[in-house]
Structure formats: structure tokens, C-alpha cells
Transporter
Amino acid sequence: MEMFAFALSVTGPIFLTLIIGYGLARQGLLREGFVDDASRLVFMITLPVLLFINIFTADAELGQELPLLAAGFLGTIITIPLAWVVARPLARGDRSAFIQGAFRGNLGIIGLAWAANAYGSSGLAQAALLMAVVTIIYNLAAVALFAVYSQQASFSWKKLAKDIAQNPLIVAIVLALICKQLGVKLPEILLQTGDYLASITLPLALLCIGASLDFSLLRRSSLAAFGAVGFKLLIVPAVLLAFGWLFRLPSQSMGVLLLLAASPSATVSFIMARALGGNSQLAANIVALSTLLSIVTASLGLALLEVFL
């Protein structure tokens, strides 16, 4: 019971903040224009600052996290084609929504928030590094999906490289690693300012995600939506944890790996489904359903991990 209480203390506050955002939006206190502007502020400014500060000031070195990064990399490489295979029986228009929802997690907000709640700044720094590796794989998978399923748009490798190079989150992580490796000393006033900006990131982002949710979609959830959510919340964490066990990761690294793997489907999967001409309604159902159920699966998974490790 004590282990489950710890797990719930990690996921519970995140879920309640999402619900508060959802309620404020329903009451008209968080309007669509504000949510759009705040989400852009988080993505472009405050989240990159948060990632930079936590990696730059972390005690751990990149070399120490290579087993964690390798487990995340290999596990993600396995789960993406596996999701593709599982989606084969579905109608062609449903496959892109299923695949995106089944492997692409909300790492940048939910995953980071869970890691920070569970393990503090050291867990957040580990999660940031892992997120960078997995995000690049997500982008490569998006190119493959566009090549197979889109009849109205296409990506080039040149555009992909440009998008990755201009991604503020990846830029912040790489810049922090370079500065840390070179032994750069930043003035205390800059670090303190960064802390101020970083401190608003997760609460603001969670409120925005909550405001964007539409739980009425759950009434129209199909077997395909439940299948994608089951894959995302059960199969993906199991595969990544298997690699973590093979690499003999310590308990905190295993916890971080679990929390990022068990994060709900990313809202960008809905955008991708629309761009691919796929079933955007199915994609929206997957996002809403996985957000709701991930609180249960992540809490149970973390509690079991604490018991056995």
C-alpha cells in the first residue's frame, strides 16, 4: 500500500492539474486564444529553459546515462514497427491514427512532470536526455508514415533534418550538454532567471493540455481506440522495461524509463492523423482515453517497480 501511495503521489497531482485545466476551460476562464499562446510560450521558451537548466546543473554526466538512452532507443525502435504490424487488420484510413497513438507519447509535458515528481531534478535531467533521443525517432517514424499513408503531402529528409535542428527542445538539450562538457560557468543571475521561467512550465503546460481535452469523445471510443491505448500504456512500457532490465539499469533509471514509456498518447498524433488524411476522430479518442487511463497504468506500474526493485 505504501508503494502505491508513492506512485499515486507522482501521478495524482498531474491528473488533478489536468482536470483543473479542463474545468477552467469549460467555465470559459481558459479561452482557446490563451491556450494557443501559452502552449507556444511553453514550447518555444519556458520548456527549453527548463530542460537546459536541469541538464546543465545536474550532477550526472552524459556517459553515465548511456545505458538508459540505449534502452529507450532500442525499445522505441522495436515498438514502432510492432504497432505497424498490429494495425494491419484495420481499415487503411484508421491505421495512421492507430500507429501514432500506439507509440507516440506525451514525453515533453506528462512524462517530464511525472519524472520530476518522482525523482526531482536528477530524474528530470535523465528524462530530458531520454526524451531527446526518443523524439528524434518519433520524427523519423513520422516521415515513414507520411511516405506510406499520405496522398496529399510528403516529407523530405532535408526537411526532417531542418525540423530536428530547429526543434527548441532538442536545441536546448544539446546546448546544455555542450556547455556542461566545456565547463562553462553561467552567472548566477542567469541561472536564477532561468529557474523563474522554468518554474511556470509544467503547471502552465498541464493546464493547457487539460483545457484542450474533450472527454465527450470517450463516448464514441471504438475497439481500435482501446487497442491503441492498450498498446501504448501496456506493451510499450513492457518492451522498454525489458531492455532496461537487460541493461541492468538502477531503480531510478528504470522508474524514469517506465514513466516516459507509460505517458499517454501525444496530442500531435491527432494533428498527424489529419495531415495523413486518416481518422482524426479515432486519434482524438485515443488521446483522451489514454490520458485518462494512463494515471491508473502508470501508478500501478510504478508501484510494482518499487516493490520488485
